[in-house]
Amino acid sequence: MLVSVIIGVYNAEKYLAQTLDSGASQTGLVHGKKNNGIEVILIDDFSKGNSRKIIEQYTYILEQKGFCVRSITHQQNKGTTKSYTEGALMARGKYFKILDHDDLLASERAPVEPVEYMESMETRGCQVGAVFSKSLYIDAQNVVFGEKRFPFPFLPYEAEDGVIAKKWGRFVLAFSPIYPFMHGSSVVRTKCWQELSAGLLSRKNIGLFDVAFAIYAMHSNAWEVAYLRSPSLRYRIHATNFTQGIMDRNSWADILNGYYEEVFPKGLLLAIIKRWNRCIQYLKSSFHRIKGADAFKSIKLFR
Fold it and tell me: Which of 73, 85, 112, 264 has an alpha carbon 20 to 30 Å from 273's alpha carbon atom?
């Protein structure tokens, strides 16, 4: 198995079929050979409604197209991080990509291009542990209204394709008030994730994702991190997920704080945390002040 696509599902009947359709459209890997293609892992986190029926329907559709499909149904809600941790631990792929139940893969080769890049770099002796890609913002009607790119989402400059210099990547992650990578915009080498997540898995039984994973990868001596301009993800902005990313960022606070204490002097660490808190509070207050679609499209100010 070359790549596993891990899809977390929770009360997702409104958008789940579109998400799975984007997965079923993937080309460029050998689907028919289950030891050399795409594996789809569906994790139903105790959903209500018709999510389970949609999963069963698309399990058949995906298998008919040659994908290897595995699904899990939780008997109680465990949350996003634990669900994705479970998926990453059971993944058979050399690489994996997480995909939320309301987002879309941006093209028919969304996970393939990063995999090809990492395989190519491996032949040159360069161990790339993760490839992050540009993300596109879409609304409830799938209309693209913005993008998120590296290094600074709020500036017009965009980095070239290639390995990110570690010092530059660390600087951006430490000082940019807006995280430069969208949740789900990466393809990760499974071995890299296992090694970097080992400590957290033993302490809290969860793995590294999003901000925390990017930080650990940027400070790793064993693994490189790369960026590709070709979009891999269409990230949907709608009422039930606008503040979710903000709250997830808060949930990582203890992990980030403990790690940064090993890297930065306490005075600088405190300044970074205060900057993040100001940004989070501003985004929260902005969301409650603005009503309707403008609240979601205002995210363009922070991309």
Answer: 85
